Amino acid sequence: MKYLFISLVFLLSISSINAQKQEISNTQNYVILTKKIPQLQPILLTAEALKAEDGNNFGDFQVIICGKTVQKLATTASVPGFLKKAESLGVQIKACGFSLNKFNVAPQSLPKGMQTVENGILHNIQLQKKGYTSIEI
What is the pLDDT of residues 62-72, one digit of tens each? Predict the structure, then answer.
């Protein structure tokens, strides 16, 4: 009887762990690499639609801006509005540090709330290795 009880507790524990793993694995995470500021509008519309579609499974959503366009991040009038919309959706917009260095853009000159990553392409690949859905536009 004692062994039956122990076996039952063990099976219930395994079942609970498997259910937790299944719940975690349903989280949908996204990363998008872009080189054009105007693409932020459709990217944010996409994030909004995916957030509604995924519901509680909507996870992390990151946008990485790379290339020469980082020079325009501080001077383009639409960027602060995109950052505000992104924040309301739980989307992070980040600038590629490698691009900032290459095009002599000081991270301090970026709009308030914009984060940086050391290397946008590497960051994208690292997130893909973690299971993120990724596209480059």
Answer: 999 999 999 99
